[in-house]
Structure formats: structure tokens, C-alpha cells
Automatic annotation (TrEMBL):
Pfam family, one: LysR_substrate
Superkingdom assignment: Bacteria
Protein name per the record: HTH lysR-type domain-containing protein
Species the sequence originates in: Paraglaciecola polaris LMG 21857
Gene Ontology process terms (BP): DNA-templated transcription
Keywords: DNA-binding, Transcription, Transcription regulation
Keyword Metal-binding tagged: no
Length: 294
């Protein structure tokens, strides 16, 4: 069978908008153009992709399978075209980014400063807030988030994997002893950020420990400070400790049980409508972290 790309963009638009009229508005063409292109594509493939009725349009089984492949092709083509265009455009306006924690301050912010230097007419606004944001109401272009993504309506691209590390001061360990298994943490003072449940991993098995906090704060730095003062045990990403592990102020514990593959994500609402300033900034970050090791 000969390969045809004629009608694919129109078909994907119909599938995404669930209607010929909506697809025509999206592509800024008339409805008859959409109808002709999709019909020609179906004829070329020899299969019905859409089930049409007077009220709605839905994908057939073959159409659903074809759409899942074609959507990525269309996005890839758009990005390829935009890459050429982006090299000729001068970025301006404001790029608004939500991020939080030591990792964002140490790594994300400096990179976005470098990105700003490459685009002198672009302003960058960073909000260091650990709460999930409303991309529409709060006008954020993208956010940096850590851990499992719960909102399937968002686009999430993995930036890097990071490791959780349990640590305490030598003063605390001398006074209270060193736990040898996560289950023993219930007998210890624990210092927490947002979660009262800590997840560990051992021999491909997940270990879940629900704990009470002696110190709880959404500031990673304050948790590290409390840990250095001997208030208890912390369990956070390695980068959140700053220099406390390197200079010996804190001692790593429970190393065989650390969760070592927690992803950090770039999250945004819908890449169909991602402006060039956001797309280029995202690609800039992804390229930097391609071979990054924590």
C-alpha cells in the first residue's frame, strides 16, 4: 500500500475536537474541505475511521488505533516546523514558571537565568510554591514537579530521576540509635515536608511507612536545619540537603531501602497551545538534564 499523508491533519483535528465543524474552526478552513480530506483518507486506507451520525462523530476501533499513532506524527511535524520558525523569532513577553524546593533553586532557576540571557526581550517570573497550580487561571506556562503525577489531563515530560535519602545528625543517632529497617522509624522522631507517609523500596518491593511528624514544614531548608540540630530523621531528595551530606553534618541511614527512581517532571496544560517561549524553555531544560546525575 502506498503511504499517504493527505487528510491526516484533518482527521486528527476531527478526532481531537469530536466534530467536523469544530475541526474546521480549529484549522481555519471550511467544513467541506475537512469532509473531503477525511473521506479521501478513508478511501486510500480502505477502512472507515469515523462513525458519523446527525448528532456526533466518534472514532471506530480502527480509527482509534490510527488516531493514537497519527496524533504523535502531527505533533512531531508541528514541532519540526516550529523549530525552524523558532530560530528566526525573537522571544518576548513573560515566561511564568512554578517550581519549589532546593532542586528548583539550585538547578532550575540558574538555567532559566541562562535562558533569559539568550533572549534579552523575555521576562521570567518564577513562583516557588509546592502546591499544584491552575495553568489557566494562574497563567503559568509550565511547572516543575516531583513524584507521581496524579492529573492525567496534564502533559508531563520527565526531566530526570532523583533519589530519596534518609539522614540524621550524629548527635541524634548517638542519643536515639540508628534504625536498620524503615519499620523502626515509628519509634523515632521524623522531620517531614508535605507527606506523612514515606515510601521505601527493597528487592523491587515497595515499603510504605505512615509516620507522625515532630517537625513539619513545606520548606526543605528548614527540615534540613532541624535535622542538623538533632531534632530527628529526614527523608528527602538528595539535592534537598544542600551541602549537609557532603560536609558530614548529616549521616545517611537506611541506604538499602531508599527509593531511587522518583521522577521530576516538567508539567504543562496542553502542548497544542504551548507558546514558543515555553516550548523553547522546556527543550532547553530537557537538553541540559539529558545526562544529568544527582
Amino acid at each position: 500500500m502506498s503511504i499517504t499523508f493527505n487528510g491526516i491533519i484533518e482527521f486528527v483535528a476531527v478526532a481531537e475536537t469530536q466534530g467536523f465543524s469544530a475541526a474546521a474552526r480549529k484549522l481555519n478552513v471550511n467544513v467541506s474541505h475537512i469532509s473531503r480530506k477525511v473521506a479521501a483518507l478513508e478511501k486510500a486506507l480502505g477502512v472507515s475511521l469515523l462513525a458519523r451520525s446527525t448528532r456526533n462523530v466518534r472514532l471506530t476501533d480502527a480509527g482509534q488505533s490510527y488516531f493514537s499513532r497519527c496524533q504523535e506524527l502531527v505533533y512531531g511535524l508541528q514541532e519540526a516546523n516550529e523549530t525552524v520558525f523558532d530560530k528566526q523569532v525573537e522571544l518576548s513577553g513573560t515566561l511564568k514558571v512554578s517550581a519549589a524546593g532546593e532542586f528548583a533553586e539550585q538547578h532550575i532557576a540558574p538555567l532559566l537565568m541562562e535562558f533569559a540571557q539568550l533572549h534579552p526581550k523575555l521576562a521570567i517570573e518564577m513562583d516557588f510554591n509546592s502546591q499544584m497550580v491552575n495553568f489557566i487561571d494562574d497563567a503559568f506556562d509550565f511547572s516543575i514537579r516531583y513524584g507521581p503525577m496524579k492529573d492525567s489531563s496534564l502533559i508531563a515530560r520527565k526531566l530526570t530521576n532523583r533519589s530519596l535519602v534518609a539522614a540524621a545528625s550524629q548527635e541524634y543517632l548517638s542519643k536515639h540509635g540508628t534504625p536498620e529497617h524503615p519499620s523502626e522509624l515509628a519509634k523515632h522522631h521524623c522531620l517531614m515536608t508535605n507527606n506523612t507517609t514515606w515510601f521505601f523500596s527493597h528487592e523491587d518491593k515497595r515499603l510504605e511507612v505512615k509516620l507522625d511528624a515532630r517537625w513539619r514544614s513545606n520548606s526543605g531548608r528548614s527540615v534540613v536545619s532541624a535535622c542538623e540540630r538533632g531534632l530527628g530523621i529526614a527523608y528527602m531528595p538528595r539535592s534537598s540537603y544542600g551541602d549537609a551530606l557532603k560536609n558530614g553534618n548529616l549521616q545517611p541511614i537506611l541506604a538499602p531501602y531508599w527509593n531511587r527512581d522518583i521522577a521530576t517532571w516538567i508539567v504543562y496544560a496542553n502542548r497544542n497551545f504551548l507558546p514558543a517561549k515555553a516550548r523553547l524553555a522546556i527543550n532547553f531544560l530537557l537538553e541540559h538534564f539529558a545526562n544529568w546525575q544527582e
